[in-house]
Structures are given as C-alpha cells and as structure tokens.
Amino acid sequence: MHTFNCTCGHSIAIIPPSEHAGYVVLDSDADLHIDNRTVTIRAFLDAVRTGRRSEWLTEFYGPNVPQPRFAQKDDADVIEDILSNSDSWTRFLYRCPMCGRIHIETSPRSRSFKTYAEN
C-alpha cells in the first residue's frame, strides 16, 4: 500500500484499484518514446526468429540476472517487460477525497507534484 499526503493534511491510502489514483500521459511525452519501444520489440522478435533469444535477454535484463529466470519467461512476458521498462512518460495522479485537490507528477518518475484545486 502506498500513501500520499495532500496539502490539506489528509493522507491518501492507495490500494489498487484505487478511486484516488490514476495516470496522466501527455501526447508529446508518449510520442517521443513509442518509436523506441517499437524498435526494442522488433529487435526481440528478430532475436527469437534468428535463434538469439537467450543472448538478447541477457543484454536486455543484464548479465547479473540468472539464466534460469529467463527460461521462466515466455515471449509475452518479455514484451510486457519491454513495455513496462520503456514507460518513461506516465505521470502519477492523486485526488484527495477530503478536499478534491488533484496532484499531478511534474515529470515522469520525479515524485514531485503540482497541485490543482477547484476555485
């Protein structure tokens, strides 16, 4: 469970799925990264087709991850990991149930938030 403190003092408990948390993706952020994600998926699929899957996985996950862990992943798992690891544009959003303020992450993975309140 994650908690987020609102500027009104209320502590927001985030228990997925949560009606107090969400995500924001700006078009300009996503457009910059979609092509990179596609290139990585194509490289993985090419490695599978050409028999270099194991080598590609070592490069993607790093040499410190044991080979048996790779064996447990099917291709769909690897593609999900590619999508998750390449998500550098999603910003977290929190809504305070007490005061209604919206807190949006100023930049992806920054853990810094800008707060908006109703007038």
Q: Could you explain how this protein is built, in words?
A:
The protein has 119 residues and is an alpha+beta fold. It has two domains: 1-25 and 90-119, no CATH class; 27-88, no CATH class. Helix content is 40%, strand content 21%. The protein is built from four helices and six strands. The chain has helices spanning 27-49, 53-61, 67-71, 75-85, and strands at 2-5, 11-14, 21-24, 91-95, 102-105, 113-116.
Structural class: alpha+beta
Low-confidence stretches: none
> What sort of overall outline do the alpha carbons produce when their principal axes are compared?
elongated
- Mean pLDDT score, rounded? 86
Question: How many helices does DSSP assign?
Answer: 4
Radius of gyration: 19 Å
Largest sheet: 4 strands, antiparallel
Q: Estimate the helix proportion, in percent.
A: 40-55%
How many strands?
6
Strand content: 15-25%
Structural domain tally: 2
For the record, give the distance between the C-alpha atoms at the N and C termini, rounded to a whole number: 31 Å
Strand order of the largest sheet: 3-4-5-6
Question: SSE string, helix = H, strand = E?
Answer: EEEHHHHEEE
Short description:
With 119 residues, the protein is an alpha+beta fold. It has helices spanning 27-49, 53-61, 67-71, 75-85, and strands spanning 2-5, 11-14, 21-24, 91-95, 102-105, 113-116.
Key structural traits:
single chain, 119 residues, alpha+beta, 2 domains, 4-stranded antiparallel beta sheet, two-stranded antiparallel sheet, 6 strands, 40% helix
